[in-house]
Amino acid sequence: MDPTTTDALITAGSALSRHGLVDAFGHVSTRTPDDGWAMTRGVPLDSLGPEDVRPFDPGADTLGPDLPKEGWIHRAVVRARPDAGAVCRAQPPTATALASAGVPIVPLHGQGAFLGPEVPVHEDPRLVRDPGHAERLAHDLGGAPAVLMRGNGAVTVGATVAEAVALMWVLERSAAMNATASAAGTPRPLDEDEQRAWREAAPELCRRIWLHLVNEETPRRRLTRP
User: Which domain holds residue 52?
Assistant: First the structure.
């Protein structure tokens, strides 16, 4: 496996775990330099080693034996989204709670606009362990950067591992802001023009978020800049 790809996925797992966005579960996949794909194995993301990054073929009819059983999510999203360069599956706690409470996550601050006017919700809370369910999830995601899974976490899509992980971090931050604003008064979302202005800067700012997350890791991880 390409060492840059391996390092990016291991760093992603460590950052997601450190920020409480995954626990024992979660997985990340990315396009490789040879236009293939790689995915993390079904192990806790804070324990990843090079041997836990495996090849992944979105065109295959089966998943590799070492891939997570919810690897079907990545397969369906990659097939539905030719623009995808990475897919992140995590369990952001506040975002998951709001989806379960039926509270929409809307852009109340600039970075929240990266996620679109409202984060879509996939209403089926069961584990996604077959192609049909995964395709329904990808349909609910549509062209959005993120989809919430009622009672079951979230999925983000980015051009790179850096962007997909940064968007998961933004999703949880935006959820916390929505929860606080709803408790304090009447939330006032950014209007369409304000959202558009922030979305234009999303690639640059997501990269800065990634570097912020990476710089909190041990020095041996800080050199990762996909």
Answer: 3-221
Question: Can you give the pLDDT of all 226 residues of the chain as single tens digits?
Answer: 889 999 999 999 999 999 999 999 999 999 999 999 999 999 999 999 999 999 999 999 999 888 999 999 999 999 999 999 999 999 999 999 999 999 999 999 999 999 999 999 999 999 999 999 999 999 999 999 999 999 999 999 999 999 999 999 999 999 999 999 999 999 999 999 999 999 999 999 999 999 999 886 555 444 444 4
Distance CA 112, CA 126 (A): 27
Name every residue whose Cβ is closer than 8 Å to that of residue 167 and which is 6 or more positions away in sequence: 88, 114, 115, 145, 146, 156, 157, 158, 206
- The pTM assigned to this predicted structure is 0.94
Q: Does some domain include residue 226?
A: no
Residue with tokens 């979230």: 154
Burial class (CB in 10 A: 0-12, 13-18, 19+), 46: middle
CATH number of 80's domain: 3.40.225.10
Tell me if 37 is assigned to some domain: yes
Measuring CA to CA, which residue among 160, 12, 136, 197 is closest to residue 83?
160
